[in-house]
Model the fold of this input.
Amino acid sequence: MAAGKRKPLVLDFEKPLVDLEDRINRIRQMADENGVDVTEQIQQLEARATQLRQEVYTSLSAVQRLQVARHPRRPSTLDYIQTMTDDWLELHGDRRGGDDMALVGGVARLDGQPVVLMGHQKGRDTKDNVARNFGMASPGGYRKALRLMEHANRFGMPIITFIDTPGAWAGVEAERLGQGEAIAYNLQQMFKFDVPIICTVIGEGGSGGALGIGVGDCLMMFEHSVYTVASPEACASILWRDAGQSGQAAEALKITARDLKQLGILDELLPEPVGGAHSRPLEAANTLKATILKNLQELQALPPDQLRERRYQKFRRIGYFTESGEAPRPAITE
Amino acid sequence: MSLFDWFANRQKVDATAPEPPEREIADGLWTKCEACGVMAYTKDLKANQMVCSNCEHHMRVWSDDRIEQLIDEDTWLPLDTGVAPVDPLGFRDRKAYRDRIKEAQAKSGLVDAVQTGQGEILGEPLVLGVMDFRFMGGSMGSVVGEKLTRAIEHATNQGVAVIILCASGGARMQEGMLSLMQMAKISGALERHRAQGLLYIPVLTHPTTGGVTASFAMLGDLILAEPKAMIGFAGRRVIEQTLREKLPDNFQTAEYLLANGFVDAIVPRTQLKKTLSQLINMHRRPESKVAVGSATGHNGTGSELAGNPSQPFNESLNGSASMP
Done:
């Protein structure tokens, strides 16, 4: 491994691909050393590699997508923000005595337009991950997010959120400071804002911790992102009484972008480069930026009351049930 | 009540009951308090709303008991009783969700984990939602979300207060993300109710956890809790496992939340009806019947309210003072 170069992380289902790529490199090296022309052979192998990559990545199971969504090299909130925007300035603090590094936010220009952006931030290495609590925000993080949203609303700037968290932080201090209240209050307040809100699950959408910045006019998700009511591990240990059944739980919970589109929860599925967003992050960022701008244009054409009504109805419709008989609903008289 | 009284009561019952005494014992003539171990005559215990008269332990009660305890006789009108659960994901863990629903329905006699309706509390009109822990741990899926949302919308339209008695393990995993989204749906409905200047009080009972805590349980204008109720976001075991640290004894109790500023008051069950009626009465606006269009809007919410003067506080106070 060359000095300064990070060790590539290989997911188990990527093994055949990596093996093939290794083989191509070996052949190329041998050919160079021996002065043999193997162009045709290499072309064939590369075509096969491309095909294999395509096959692997178009038929990923929920568990495999979960692995991609949690990939340590998957572009993070700050990666996207720094790639997509100009004049970015990170803004800190919940004005209640803290600054949660697991949930970051700030102001920037997106295609010239001032916006407020925020999202969960996982660490880029172990040390960073410890500082950022692996992207698990504390109540202060959600209160900082709300403060920034209120700021956006006051100045008529659209709100862009990025979701990428295993879940809200489950710790003594988080409970003491009202983790439930912090998330709940965000859910309610996000229905009030007059400005467009676009939420994108860029990696892992973990339960209430994800939803805490996830109430918007448009929910987008990258192809290999997941969004789940409970982590498959937690679900398996509760319902199967065996955390080892997390694979089965991941399938059963319907956590992939495609499933959520079908259930009427997801508005926009963002295609990822073959090999996942981490294989070509710039391409992923371009897709994200273009889609945000497209949706922003539509949403900004709506007057605020229509926007809020549309947001309310979007969530109002979600749910499956049957209904028998016409329930009486008389007026309450005194 | 002394033991002699209990004995006397029991003899009286024995003498007049159409059923043989053995049958009554099987039905639970006596109930042992799980906290202090003292036996109580079940009828007396029920009359005391299942609160132990020896140690004040609040035993579990179900949604029917709650409605009976709180709502004035002949004023209860259930809402949306026909809304029933389906299995949208085809979910199966060790058991199929379909079968779990059927079992829970058979066991509890309920359709799903919440009952909603309108009624009166000591003459104060309101919309009430009562969660029922018997039904799959009071978990929140599409039906709970839909029924609570409709109940809140109904209260908004009628200009009355909403009370929700929470008892839930959180979002129902068997409906996946549909359950999570109910948190947002209900919170949205509460935002509209609030924008009309109407009162919402959640009452947190044992246990209130997970997605319910992270949504409507914590969104009250005022938040009440029952003594010793367990209330929290993350499960105690989860926290213990991840942190490997000993948790405070009163961690995630109603008392702990009160001390940390997340609950307004702890109200014993026997005082709940009176307290709720007083609070509703105190927060009533003079013309609460026509609250739609006259309440205070703020921060640009409730555009339909634009142009309406907000209600002066002292005026509403005067109004409520003249209420019965």
About this structure: Chain B has two domains: 1-59, 61-285. The mean pLDDT of chain B is 85. The domain at 61-285 of chain B is CATH 3.90.226.10 (2-enoyl-CoA Hydratase; Chain A, domain 1).
